[in-house]
Structure to design on (710 residues):
């Protein structure tokens, strides 16, 4: 039977709803059986495939004076050593980190200064180790400090105004009956996805094909087209399966350019997978941030003023400003507000996107300060937040499309057993262990980007949806299939989906918790257009099926007269060992208001994943700036400690039902990042409740705890 508008609607009778259900991942079996192919695992790899291994700079600032590749070229299997003197020239790029091997300057430690190419991975690594590089070294400055003489206020911090002021915050603070002033420090943090950055590049005449571990195939194609002077149609980029990214793969990185260069230079396909030890210096990280907060309030807890000044670092070659003071602009009703971003250019690798950029550090500082204010007032921290709920977004004055933070706080308090809490710090003791509980609010903006999709009704009664979306482990392909099945009113197993290639209709990158909202909108529109085509079609479907397409550019770019955000509440219980200084999180709870939840199973996984990453930010994760040599000391998972299952015995996530008609046809908000946002502050507040001492520098490692206890 050919599908028609009538038959698809009839198929809904007795059908389980596609959206909201906890559908299993469509690619789950492929991943656990190893048949899902990642960037450098393509089965069609040519027999003459070569392998590349980069040579990073060993100085923090300077200039390459000589690259001696003679020993490397003499090794068995070495095909070439690319240097600034013989590497293919590339065109202009608006991203300086992609202009690799184009000159002799070294802007930071780890910058690529050569590339060894050989007939095997082992031979490429040996050749890279044999390359000898000489430098002219310059003095460097690689440590961020608040009083740095070169600090400046940028005009923009990742699209947000560098400075915003309402009223007179300083005068209001000076006159406030209750005042809190505190500084908070967050160290450099690294993304460390399970799959490192990797590419497979092949030239077929003047056509370049790249398999890349990236959060967006189309942005990679655009960058390569500009660099290699090609029309975009002469480049194919595939990112079908990606082993995590957390923002580090959100923009093209140098490895993909090097792979394409090496393939062009040698005339052979080339695989390049960056060693984990090199990731810290070349694929971005969260800048360290220094926060100064001032909160002024009446004695009843009503906020009178908020000041949040944040200082971050950026590199000499590329300005990237962590927008870590933005949350104070939207969270609480306050008549006087001053939020400022400051930046310092240093001889360091370029910082970049990391999960919940801006909001994660911003909310740690703000929500810690709110807890300090609650302590100063002798007020329950949940009550303090509820008392300062705004009627409209404070910064813009726009009404919220929906804001259910109060419901999240109340429901979380009920589930967590908050009202049984003894508010006095340092009183719950079991031998050497002190126990405490903490709470923090969370927010993340709702973003939606233009996207395209196609939907095809096939003669066998099934449907094919095609879109260049990227699934970086979130379950995106499954949720998009659910959106299609819901729009078509057919069972989920009758929908097939193709994603992750520039051969498909344009889709924006997976980032900013905007992927599903953006791609899903286009999928919904393509499927509803297909229903209309089917209704008008007579006779059997042609062999190639019947296709409808969508493009949401006009609708997605229209600015709605609403402030659109997701909100949440994070709760944590910790035990602090007063002998060892170790902090153990016993349980965590997150309750979120994030629009319509499209897949209960994958949504819960995303929330919990974000919460776990927030736990790492609070207790274990940090990189140390190497003042003497530049770069970072922690460059692998042995020294950069990410949390594991045993680090939190009990973790749970819930959500409140939220209907928001001002978002997209599905009514969904992003959920990938909000889980991390409130968690570090909730844990830090719980540690204060446990020991009665406030720690203001992350992570809360035993040495800091013991120093505080003494």
């Amino acid at each position: 039977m050919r599908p028609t508008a009538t038959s698809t609607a009839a198929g809904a009778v007795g059908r389980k709803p596609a959206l909201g259900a906890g559908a299993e991942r469509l690619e789950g079996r492929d991943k656990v059986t190893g048949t899902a192919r990642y960037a450098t695992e393509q089965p069609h790899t040519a027999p003459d495939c070569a392998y590349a291994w980069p040579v990073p700079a060993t100085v923090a600032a300077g200039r390459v004076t000589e690259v001696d590749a003679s020993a490397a070229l003499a090794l068995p299997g070495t095909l070439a050593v690319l240097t600034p003197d013989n590497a293919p020239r590339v065109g202009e790029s608006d991203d300086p980190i992609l202009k690799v091997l184009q000159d002799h300057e070294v802007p930071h430690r780890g910058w690529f200064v050569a590339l060894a190419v050989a007939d095997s991975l082992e031979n490429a690594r040996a050749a890279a180790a044999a390359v000898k590089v000489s430098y002219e070294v310059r003095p460097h400055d690689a440590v961020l400090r608040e009083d740095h003489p070169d600090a400046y206020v940028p005009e923009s911090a990742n699209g947000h105004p560098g400075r915003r002021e309402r009223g007179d915050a300083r005068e209001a603070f000076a006159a406030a009956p209750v005042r809190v002033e505190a500084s908070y420090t967050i160290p450099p943090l690294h993304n460390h996805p399970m799959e490192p950055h990797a590419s497979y590049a092949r030239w077929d005449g003047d056509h370049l094909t790249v398999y890349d571990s990236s959060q967006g195939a189309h942005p990679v194609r655009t960058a390569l087209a500009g660099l290699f002077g090609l029309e975009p149609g002469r480049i194919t980029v595939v990112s079908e399966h990606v082993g995590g990214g957390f923002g580090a793969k959100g923009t093209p990185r140098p490895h993909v350019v090097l792979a394409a260069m090496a393939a062009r230079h040698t005339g052979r396909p080339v695989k390049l997978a960056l060693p984990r030890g090199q990731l810290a210096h070349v694929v971005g990280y969260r800048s360290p941030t220094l926060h100064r907060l001032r909160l002024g309030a009446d004695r009843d807890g009503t906020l009178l003023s908020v000041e949040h000044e944040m200082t971050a670092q950026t590199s000499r070659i590329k300005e990237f400003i962590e927008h870590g003071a933005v949350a104070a602009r939207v969270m609480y009703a306050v008549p006087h507000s001053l939020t400022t971003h400051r930046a310092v250019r240093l001889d360091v690798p370029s910082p970049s996107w990391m999960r919940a950029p801006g909001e994660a550090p911003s909310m740690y500082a703000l929500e810690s300060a709110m807890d300090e204010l609650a302590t100063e007032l002798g007020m329950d921290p949940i009550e303090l937040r509820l008392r300062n709920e705004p009627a409209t977004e404070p910064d813009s004055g726009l009404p919220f499309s929906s804001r259910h933070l109060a419901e999240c706080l109340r429901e979380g308090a009920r589930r967590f057993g908050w009202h049984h809490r003894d508010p006095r710090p340092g009183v719950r003791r079991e031998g050497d262990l002190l126990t405490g509980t903490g709470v923090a609010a969370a927010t993340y903006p709702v973003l939606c980007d233009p996207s395209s999709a196609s939907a095809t009704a096939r003669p066998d009664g099934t449907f094919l949806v095609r879109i260049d979306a990227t699934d970086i482990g979130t379950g995106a392909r499954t949720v998009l299939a659910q959106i299609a099945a819901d729009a078509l009113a057919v069972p989920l197993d009758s929908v097939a989906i193709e994603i992750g290639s520039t051969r498909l209709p344009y889709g924006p990158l997976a980032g900013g918790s905007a992927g599903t909202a953006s791609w899903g909108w286009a999928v919904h529109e393509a499927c509803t257009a297909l229903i209309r085509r089917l209704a008008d079609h007579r006779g059997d479907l042609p062999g190639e099926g019947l296709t409808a397409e969508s493009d949401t550019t006009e609708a997605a770019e229209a600015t709605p007269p609403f402030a659109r955000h997701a909100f949440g509440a994070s709760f944590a219980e910790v035990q602090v060992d007063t002998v060892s200084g170790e902090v153990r999180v016993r349980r965590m709870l997150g309750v979120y208001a994030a629009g319509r939840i499209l897949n209960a199973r994958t949504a819960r996984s995303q929330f919990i994943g974000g919460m776990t990453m927030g736990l790492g930010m609070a207790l274990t994760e940090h990189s140390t700036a190497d003042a003497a040599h530049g770069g970072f000391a922690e460059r692998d998972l042995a020294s950069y400690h990410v949390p594991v299952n045993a680090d939190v015995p009990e973790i749970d996530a819930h959500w409140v039902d939220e209907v928001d008609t001002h978002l997209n046809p599905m009514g969904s908000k992003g959920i990938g990042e909000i889980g991390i946002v409130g968690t570090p502050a909730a844990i830090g507040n719980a540690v204060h409740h446990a020991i009665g001492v406030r720690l203001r520098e992350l992570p809360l490692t035993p040495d800091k705890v013991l120093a505080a206890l003494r």
